[in-house]
Amino acid sequence: MIKFLDLGKQPLANSFIKSVDLKKKEKKFRLSIAFNKKNYLVSILNTIPKEMMFNEKYPYKSSESNTMKSSFKKLSTKIKKNFDTENILEIGSNDGPFIKNFDKKKIVGIEPCENLAKITRAKGYRTICKYWNIDLAKKISKKKKFKLIYSANTLSHIKDISGIFKAIDIALDDQGILILEDPSLLECLKNNAYDQFYCEHIYVFSTIALKEILKKYDLEIFDVENTKTHGGSNRYYIKKIFNSKIKIKKNVVINLRKERKYGLHKITTYKAFARRVKLSKFKLSKLINKLISKKKIIIGYGATAKSCTVFNYCRFNNKHIKFFYDTTSFKINKFLPGSKIEIKKYKKLTLKDTDYVYLGAWNFQNEIFKKEKKFLNAGGKFITHIPFPRIIGRS
Ligand code: TYD
Predict the structure, then answer these.
(1) Tens digit of pLDDT for each residue in 310-337?
(2) What is the pLDDT of residues 74-83, one digit of tens each?
(3) Could you identify the atom of ligand 1 that is nearest to the CA of residue 327?
(4) Does the beta carbon of 154 lie inside 6 Å of ligand 1?
(5) For an engineered disulfide with 84, which of 123, 147, 211, 234 has Cβ 3.0 to 4.6 Å away?
(6) What is the three-class DSSP state of 87?
(7) Is the minimum distance from the CB of 326 to ligand 1 under 6 angstroms?
(8) Low-confidence residues in the chain, pLDDT < 70
(9) Can you tell me which atom of ligand 1 is nearest the CA of 64?
(10) Tell me, what DSSP letter sits at residue 174?
């Protein structure tokens, strides 16, 4: 493992603070990112016990975003058309935007966060409130293996990578399909999106790394789709190696080539990324401090885990950003970890309230810009650090 980036001491990105706890000391850890020369995997070095992050207080609900809901719906239609949907397993079913597109009798959700598992159970979907591992895989696939296993933005949160795939190999039918979806390392590097790294994102996967890892478990990628969700993700279609009925699509080679061409197999690429990240911090701080010195008001939009990384790395606080707007009920009236900036219930933006808006949820830029058309048309401006720090207005 070669460490290439140090994002400093960081609190747990989704541990939003109640006002009564503002004076309490927060648990912090060093956020360093490393590259594994052998299998090309990029991961954070110090990990936090899963129970501290994924529990009954987990704030993220995928159904709260229209972009995510429509992405899951489109994928479900495609899956029904192309694959056997007789029995499906979803690892990390969250509040159900994927499973809700399928027959209740044919799908099972795994969701370790009780608050989320309750939501899908209440709608009649079988949901097992446990962490994904080998024991669970054996138990749930004893009678019948799964024809399709789906997991989005979840496997990158699980430290025991060998356990993940051994368990999948156990639960997946020999003719079955595994579909994985996670942020793309290539897009992360191209966008200088260092905020994809935080305590929950132990890995940011690439096609070249997954290919290497899957080999060990007799699994192989037969198709890759590049999607726009979460700032650029990859959807990997995977099968058992000895299932020769499914042919490997050209897209796999195209993605492998693209990633090698960019240099995802070389440490020099990551060192160059680290240099760009430092420059991004310098430029964003300069931009925000300049606006503050001109007495401009800046607020934040979307109190994301990503913002937590940026704000703690750049050392921003409520002197820089007055408050954040967010639509997530759990986050409202709480404070961002580390920077302790207040989160308020979302209200449509107006120039009366603010001069500039830092785009914390930059991965939903299109959805947000559509919603805030009036503000933009009236001359309202956003600030983003993706792919480099700048002010953006009406295009
Ligand atoms: P998310 O994309 O999950 O980012 P992370 O994984 O880094 O936390 O979070 C998006 C956040 O933005 C979530 O708290 C909801 C908020 N949000 C709004 O407040 N308004 C919006 O219109 C959208 C799309 C998101």
Answers:
(1) 999 999 999 999 999 999 988 999 999 9
(2) 999 999 999 9
(3) 19
(4) no
(5) 147
(6) coil
(7) yes
(8) 395
(9) 15
(10) E
